[in-house]
Amino acid sequence: xxxxxxxxxxxxxxxxxxxxxxxxxxxxxxxxxxxxxxxxxxxxxxxxxxxxxxxxxxxxxxxxxxxxxxxxxxxxxxxx
Length: 80
Hints:
A 3-stranded antiparallel β-sheet has the order 1-3-2. The chain is about 60% helix and about 15% strand. By secondary structure, it is of the alpha+beta class. A hairpin with a 4-residue loop joins β2 (about 50-55) and β3 (about 60-65).
């Protein structure tokens, strides 16, 4: 399940980048061929990691363009 969440999280980032960084949950469900619950779990992970924000007023998700990944984490993830 964790692998699926990670894969869908990557797909969400790709869709966000292609849509100018902002999208609704309904648009994500239409664009991704994945169960809505899996998309929600992946969004939760991205939000927790600081890669995506949610606007409570508009219910839109946006890409955090100022996010800087910890280089130690990148080195760890690449060498697994």
